[in-house]
Fold:
Amino acid sequence: MKDGFIKIAAGVPEIALGDCAENAARIVAMARQMQAQGVKIAVFTELGVTGYTLEDLFLQQALLDASAQALQKIIDHTADLDMLLLVGVPVPVGCSLYNCAAVINRGRLLGLVPKTHIPTYSEFYEGRRFTPAPAQWESVSYLGQSVLLGQGLFRCASLPELVVGVELCEDAWVPSPPSVGLAQAGANVICNLSCSNELIGKSDYRGTIVRALSGSLLCAYAYCSAGSGESTTDLVFSGHCMICENASLLAEQRWETGRFVTADIDIQKLNADRRRMSTFTAAPSEQYPIIGEFDLNVTETNLTRVFPRTPFVPQGKDSIDARCREIIHIQSAGLQRRLTAAHAKHAVIGLSGGLDSTLAYLVTVDAFTQLGYPLENIMALTMPCFGTTSRTKSNAQKMAEAIGTSFREVDIHAAVQQHFSDIGHDGVTTDITYENSQARMRTLILMNTANQCGGLVIGTGDLSELALGWATYNGDHMSMYGVNVGVPKTLVRYLVEYVASTVEEPLQSVLYDVLDTPVSPELLPPEENGDIAQRTEDIVGPYELHDFFMYYIMRCGFAPHKIYRIALRAFEGKYTPDTIEKWLKNFVRRFFTQQFKRSCLPDGPKVGSVAISPRGDWRMPSDALSAEWLRDLENN
Structure:
């Protein structure tokens, strides 16, 4: 539970239809199996104590007495479990019978939540037996005690940020589910006890509903439906279980009666999402009050959750290709609009032969193609200087020739040497002035070339470089429109690779060679054999680590110690703990100190949920200090 991780389970014991004592024993046995795996919240099926398909037998006193006795056994025999349990049971109150979820914790019955929407259509006829939930919760006598019955919230006393709401089956299928009000009142975990039969296509539809609810409500949603043991007189049940978090499916099972699924949900992430989205309003509600508090030991969850090393990159080739097509379309559409708005039919781009400039160049080519502008109106400039290698220079020229854009070489050696003389630099010391003078000279040439032809300078810097501040202020930091500003470095590679897979020779070979070239600004002299001497990742750290850090700091708002914890899991076997800590500290320091560069960025298209434009997504003072973030990592 530390760092907001909660292990939740949805379990489907095989139903002994009408045998309440046996069902209770099976629920207790499964709960103990869940406890052994560190589960803190356990959701069982609708009317799981009795079975759902008993029809008019629910009107028999013998069944109702047996179900009450069985529920008491579940309460007594799980008193030693550090767990919140939700069990389905019929509850008679006066002349009414409610289809309820009994909420249990450490030998206490915290409350009874009745089903709100009672279906009486098609194969369902619950209205013959059950009464809808009362409009307001009420105190009722059950199992020899006074207990609250109605819709409300259950809050964890030891972890107040964990708030649980409950709905049952049909409640999720209606236009205004109880979960909407529950979430707005503060619930970040919704549990659904269900008994939904199988029909062709129904499982997909059911899954869509559950994922959509978890997304629109910014919550975790645990759905547990009955399986084998229910009557098959007319219907079949698959035991469909799902655990979702903010529209993502974390775990699922079907046709697996007698088993349960678990997932690690992240309460801190959900609450951070809610705070970030100003349109999500959560406030205490008289309709959905706190009707029960439960207690759990705040222990460290043994994580089974998977944290992808590249959170910006989807899984699977088809998904990656679809993502790449969409991103390039967004980049191209943004540039097309800017070109037409500026009445510019020319573009100038510094084509170095590296990954970023290659992607920006390919996007520019696509934009010109879509607009019907001549490709020769794209001026690709290569500007060799002290660190330029023959490999990158050659690839830039080959690329332009293969596509058919204009290409020009402007050697800047003499201009930079003259600049060194003007400012009194010896031209030999390879300091920051030595490097940045080259970058700024290139930007000067690009800008003035654009003025000559009435075109726009297309920026090449990517999102990762901007997060790290790995750009020369008023050098490659500046352009007239930056098409890569929303694309992290780990995704740039996939975009170029995607384009390479769709084109023919000789362009394809050039793009694959660009992909094989080390990432470098090429501002220091090459090695004696002509290879690149300055490798970016040797200086600032691996981009896959920095993109990982960036995602969880900017998108999720995680504290550094939590990011370190999940990075250890994600990169186990690839980077040592010391290496991860070193580069995380470096990221935090640079992220803070380099904000001044991000505060005056050129325009560029946002393409994902993480963006760094000072005009929209990311606003912070340039003089904020990183001390508390670094202390958080040291102290945890």
Notes: The mean pLDDT is 96. The chain has two domains: 2-294, 317-635. Residues 519 and 542 are 10 Å apart (CA to CA).
